[in-house]
Design goal:
about 500 residues; about 20% strand; binds N-(aminocarbonyl)-beta-alanine; binds zinc ion
Length: about 500
């Protein structure tokens, strides 16, 4: 059982997104009370030696689906195993998605997610809500969610035709409303119509295996939708967050838009940064199916490095995992038809190590950028900063003691997730969490998860995150189109025939 105790972490290198310093960190009642050299602490305080190690803000996973009912089954990792795995990997907060069925109440779905998650979570969490249909009731419920329920982000699907997909006109309406209520619009950017046609074509060609999943939705399908979402969001001055950016083409679209001044953020995920879509062509069906997710991993093997480069230089901003795990027997629902393979992969446990290995150990980014893309930027975008994402007096005591030199091999044999395979199987990563502290409790230490289900909290988020909305507000003030003042035209006007032709 992990208790909330007085803790001092001694002698580590404290890493924030903007600088690193050698300092002790003192924690009491779940809050960081002091950061400094040779801190004096009350008698009875637990001392943790962090000499030679880094002390990082706990990771924030911006994108998970625990216990999600999807494609006829339910993800095998629930809020308990999912958050146990999170803390074992150095992540101390997840943002999960409420996904109501078309026609269903957003508020009822939100309450269902809260009731499911609250008793099980081993670390703090918050909720995005998906808008899967549109009318005045949805509009009103979005307002209630923002004003009373701590939600400031809404995800819209441009894929999953007839299930979750919204059309452009609906996207326009939802983005406009997000802007009005101070929320951030998130999109799953893939052209659902093209996917539906592509899937029919692959099946008609006799391609029923997992490779069909990528072949029916190539990079263009993702890039086109990404550009379309950015165009629609910009037309209503709404900030946009593109979830799971999986391809070089889509990443370039996001990068270009940012360079053209659009308020858009791109989220690559651990899977896309750590592995690739060549696995869909593996001869072992179960192996190949294990990587099926939407948008798919890309067969171009230079994709992970490319996404990491863009993440390092701020073309992409923040990382999640889209952790949405189905065991092999669940994936087998699609053994004869790739369109029936439940979409989703693991990542919540391994994100921090994969990004350290491929990002920091490789020399693409430094430790401070690592903190930015695994924690601080998420806290800023979703209005949690500096409560989360920072090691400073007054911030939540969500911390990881990180050994940058140790290595671990990722394996289903040792992971804490319920899923029965791991897409990163065999990958050796530098960067190992030694101790994870969540809300002032030691929740992971010595390779053991100590967290108690239900000790994590739901963290409400306010609208109008400054990091996102300062520019939006200013543009609203100065960017309003205005009519040209001119003398009325008083010349001749032709007459139209009465039938208008
Ligand atoms: O394959 C995926 N991504 N599964 C989860 C649902 C989603 O689109 O995020
Ligand atoms: Zn999605
Ligand atoms: Zn997702």
């Amino acid at each position: 059982m992990s208790n909330r105790e007085k803790i001092v972490i001694r002698g580590g290198k404290v890493v924030n997104e903007d600088f690193s310093e050698r300092a002790d960190v003192y924690v009491e009642d779940g809050i960081i009370r002091a950061v400094g050299l040779d801190l004096e602490v009350p008698a009875g305080t637990r001392e943790i030696d962090a000499r030679g190690k880094l002390v990082l803000p706990g990771g924030i996973d911006t994108h998970t689906h625990m216990e999600l009912q999807f494609m006829g089954t339910v993800t095998v990792d629930d809020f308990k195993t999912g958050t146990e795995a999170a803390v074992a990997g150095g992540t101390t907060m997840i943002l999960d998605f409420v996904i109501p069925q078309k026609g269903a109440s957003l508020l009822e779905a939100y309450e269902k997610w809260r009731n499911t998650a609250d008793p099980k979570v081993c670390c703090d969490y918050s909720l995005h809500v998906a808008v899967t249909w549109w009318d005045d009731r949805v509009k009103k419920e979005m307002e209630t969610l923002v004003q009373e329920k701590g939600v400031n982000s809404f995800k819209m699907f441009m894929a999953y035709k007839d299930v979750f997909m919204l059309r452009d006109q609906e996207l326009y309406a939802v983005f406009s409303h997000c802007k009005e209520i101070g929320a951030i619009a998130q999109v799953h950017a893939e052209n659902g119509d093209l996917i539906a046609e592509g899937a029919k074509r692959m099946l008609s060609l006799g391609i029923t295996g997992p490779e069909g999943h990528e072949l029916c939705r190539p990079e263009d399908v993702e890039a086109e939708a990404t550009q379309r979402a950015i165009t629609i969001a910009h037309s209503v001055n709404c900030p946009l967050y593109v979830v799971h950016v999986m391809s070089k083409s889509a990443a370039k679209v996001v990068a270009n838009a940012r360079r053209n001044g659009r308020v858009v953020f791109g989220e690559p995920i651990a899977a896309g940064l750590g592995t690739d879509g060549t696995h869909y062509w593996n001869k072992d069906w179960a192996h190949a199916a294990g990587f099926v997710m939407g948008p798919p991993l890309r067969p171009d093997p230079s994709t992970p490095d490319y996404l990491m480069d863009l993440l390092a230089n701020d073309d992409l901003t923040v990382t999640g995992t889209d952790n949405c795990t189905f065991s092999v027997c669940q994936k087998a629902l699609g053994k004869d038809d790739f369109t029936r393979i439940p979409n989703g992969v693991n990542g919540v446990e391994d994100r921090m190590s994969v990004i350290w290995e491929k990002g920091v150990h490789s020399g693409k980014m430094d430790e401070n950028r690592f903190v930015a893309v695994t924690s601080s930027n998420a806290a800023k975008i979703f209005n949690l900063f500096p409560q989360k994402g920072r090691i400073a007096m007054g911030s939540d005591a969500d911390l990881v003691i990180w050994d940058p030199n140790a290595t671990r091999m990722i394996s289903v044999k040792t992971h804490h997730q319920a899923v029965d395979y791991n897409i990163f199987e065999g990958m050796v990563c530098h960067g190992v969490p030694l101790v994870t502290i969540s809300g002032g409790r030691v929740v992971y230490e010595g390779g053991r998860v100590l967290a108690e289900p239900g000790t994590g909290r739901f963290i409400p988020r306010k609208p109008y995150a400054e990091f996102v909305y300062k520019r939006i507000h200013q543009r609203e003030q100065v960017g309003k189109p205005s009519a040209v003042v001119r003398k009325p035209y008083d010349g001749e006007v032709i007459s139209l025939a009465s039938n208008g032709s």
